[in-house]
Design brief:
The protein is mainly β. Strands 46, 47, 48, 50, 51, 53 and 55 form a seven-stranded mixed beta sheet that branches. The longest helix is centred in the N-terminal third of the chain and has 12 residues, at 2-13.
């Protein structure tokens, strides 16, 4: 029992769940009228972590942070630029080296604690690495936080032109009275991720989790050990392999949602990997969670972990703050995706090209309204389960987009932006939309709500797709799948291995089922000089309406009286998506014939110490060599290669598949020449050497550090090539 308490004491000390609401989605603090309050004191605290090299300087609002000496916890008094009326800005951190801040908490008047960021990533501003907590130059409601205890909010007041503090009407610490509430139903949801090998067993409270089959989302009814009065324990997960759980949410009485863990790591108990959600063997008040909507708490009352809801009756409302029954939204497959917008050129130049997700916008001619079928042109950004990236628009001159709308499944319309000005980066003028690698959102955040309110696009967390949720009674049964899957499906084409060595000797024994409508125009008079090089794989079931150009696949019963005519030309050599291609011994697979792209599959010689993935390869088409770009590295391309020490990746690579370099025990250096790398699969670097050096283009050092993060090796060094 002592060990049990030690392990989970730290986890359960994080006793309150904080919800930060984006624009338009902010929910109010606990019931009661909010009033503006004066700010008399302010403090900011955070944990600093180095991302790259050590910083020699670390400033907040252009002043050195007192006592700064690298990784650790810090506290700043009189944080932000404020008066009693409110803030004009919350402040900017700046350093000469990259960093990450965690648990950034603003405490106002000594009691209201606002989590500004769980994890904040800096950005490079001309060699100065900055992290901005916000200022008044935002739209109304753009800055909005709810305090940990749900008793206050911090948001932008357009009338006062300040970020102001609002608290419940009486202004005192106590919230409206909470009373113990009966528990009548309980549900637990979570996302399971493998950490090591695959699990053959996964249990909750000693019972197998229904339908468990590895990585994915799960739901358990009647979660924990409880009665109407409360819980004796919230439960234990156990498996025979390591795992991580994310977004562990306990829903009580069908409406109160408690985030028990954003990310939960298992621990090894004699070969059984466990994760404990808590039990009653703690001091009173030790276990305490606040529901997402701030209307209920879950805490230890001395005998049970009990549910407490607001006594004024507002606790009986549905999440969202009103009594209206809101239809349940369910995850729905994507079957079609379309982006439309109005383009307006900026003053600095005229664009000659406009691309959407790397594809040319059809018929682009400057100012006007455009529509692009993303399902056809940008298949790398999504699959049926959700979006990896909502996409981007780029040009060679500045511009503004208006009324940018994403239409999903032909029905649900999402406004991505009413007016979006392009930003110059990576030597292009770009407008970028959210993706699943963004550090700016938390799992479960609703990024966009459809115009009719019946559908939402929900952020899934790092490397988890942005999913479409539709009201259950409006969710259609998919009638078709997306045009292309995220990873190409490889369909091998059989290659004939035997050429005919003798002349046909027999007449076909089967009579055609349909009589040819056109008689042959000429009787063959010349014996062929060259034997056919390709043998068809199956006999036709219907006789051709015109003279056949290839010999029948079944031998005739008798020798023809006259030989067939000499073929006038060789059969066309076709290249199709999914075809396997070998160039100089290296294996590839065709991914797109119109764009002429291939995927790198495997090295020629697994014993070579140095391997290069080329920029292009020559593919034979109709007897000619056609240049194809190498744009991706296949899943497990180098997996378990114990000899390779250095791999060079060509400049056209955009994606690297999962497990691509897994267990390359001697891989010391990877050189990335590409500046357009956008996705790296799970565990791509797992099992590689510590201090693996990855050399990248100078302008991509910062971006690629984030891209390679959590790919199986946390000890890599990203350096300028």
């Amino acid at each position: 029992m002592k060990r049990f308490k030690q392990i989970f004491g730290v986890v359960l000390a994080l006793c309150l769940v904080v919800t930060q609401f984006p624009t338009g989605g902010g929910k109010s603090a606990k019931a009661g009228t909010e009033t503006k309050k004066e700010i008399v004191s302010s403090k900011i605290s955070f944990t600093y972590e180095e991302t790259g090299s050590s910083a020699s300087s670390f400033k907040y609002k252009d002043k050195e942070v007192a006592g700064f000496n690298g990784k650790g916890e810090y506290e700043i008094e009189d944080a932000g630029t404020y008066t009693a009326a409110g803030y004009t800005e919350l402040g900017i951190f700046a350093s000469d080296a990259e960093y990450t801040l965690k648990n950034v908490v603003l405490t106002i008047n000594g009691k209201y604690e606002f989590v500004l960021k769980d994890t904040g990533y800096c950005w490079n501003d001309g060699g100065v690495y900055k992290l901005d907590l916000g200022n008044i130059y935002y739209e109304a409601e753009k800055i909005s936080y709810t305090s940990k205890d749900g008793k206050a909010t911090l948001k932008y007041d357009a009338d006062a032109n300040l970020v102001v503090l609002l608290v419940i009407e009486d202004g005192n610490s106590p919230a409206p009275e909470e009373t113990k509430t009966d528990i009548i139903s309980s549900k637990l949801t979570f996302t399971y991720e493998e950490t090591g090998s695959s699990a053959s067993s996964f249990k909750y409270k000693d019972k197998e989790v229904a339908g468990f089959n590895g990585k994915g989302e799960y739901e358990i009814e009647d979660a924990g050990t409880y009665t109407a009065a409360g819980y004796t324990e919230l439960g234990i997960f156990a498996s025979d392999a390591e795992y991580t759980l994310k977004n562990v949410v306990l829903t009580i009485n069908g409406k109160y949602e408690f985030v028990l863990k954003d990310t939960g790591y298992c621990w090894n108990d004699g070969g059984v990997y466990k994760l404990d959600l808590g039990n009653i063997y703690y001091e009173a008040e030790k276990i305490s969670y606040t529901s997402k909507d701030g209307k209920a708490t879950l805490k230890y009352d001395g005998s049970l972990i009990s549910l407490f809801a607001l006594a004024d009756g507002s606790g009986d409302q549905n999440p969202g703050g009103d009594d209206t029954q809101k239809p349940e939204k369910v995850k729905t497959e994507l079957t079609s995706v379309k982006l439309s917008f109005t383009y307006e050129k900026a003053a600095e130049g005229t664009a000659t090209v406009l691309k959407v997700c790397n594809a040319d916008a059809g018929g682009f001619a400057g100012d006007g309204t455009y529509e692009v079928d993303i399902a056809e042109e940008a298949w790398l950004t999504w699959d049926k389960t959700g979006f990896y990236d909502l996409g981007f628009v780029e040009s060679d001159a500045g511009y503004t987009l208006k009324n940018v709308m994403l239409t999903v499944n032909g029905v649900h319309e999402f406004i991505l932006g009413e007016t979006l000005a392009s930003e110059f980066k990576d030597e292009k003028h770009k407008v970028d939309f959210p993706n699943c690698w963004s550090p700016d959102y938390a799992a479960g955040d609703v990024l966009f709500t459809s115009k009719d309110g019946k559908a939402t696009i929900v952020f899934g967390g790092n490397n988890v797709v942005l999913s479409l949720y539709v009201e259950s009674d409006k969710a259609p049964t998919p009638t078709k799948k997306p045009n292309r899957p995220y990873y190409p499906v490889i369909v091998s084409t059989p290659t004939p291995t035997v050429e005919p060595t003798v002349e046909p000797t027999a007449i076909p024994t089967a009579t055609p089922t349909v009589t040819p409508t056109t008689a042959p125009t000429a009787i063959p008079t010349v014996k062929p000089t060259v034997a056919p090089t390709i043998v068809p794989t199956a006999a036709p079931t219907i006789a051709p309406t015109v003279e056949p150009t290839e010999a029948p696949t079944e031998a005739p019963a008798e020798k023809p009286t006259e030989a067939p005519a000499t073929p006038t030309k060789a059969p066309a050599e076709k290249v199709q998506k999914g075809d396997k291609v070998t160039v100089s011994g290296e294996k590839y697979v065709v991914t797109n014939t119109s764009k002429k792209t291939v995927e790198y599959v495997a090295a020629k010689n697994s014993k070579k110490k140095t391997v290069s993935v080329p920029e292009t390869v020559k593919v034979s088409v109709n007897g000619k060599k056609v240049t194809y770009k190498v744009t991706s590295i296949k899943n497990s391309a180098f997996k378990n290669n114990k000899k390779v020490e250095k791999i060079t990746v060509g400049k056209n690579i955009k994606t690297i598949g999962k497990d691509a370099f897994k267990n390359c025990k001697n891989l010391k250096t990877i050189v990335i020449k590409s500046t357009s790398l956008t996705k790296i699969g799970k565990d791509a670097l797992k099992g590689t050497v510590k201090k693996l050096v990855i050399k990248v283009p100078a302008k991509k050092v910062s971006a690629y550090k984030k891209l390679f993060k959590k790919k199986g090796n946390n000890n890599i060094a990203i350096k300028k090539a």
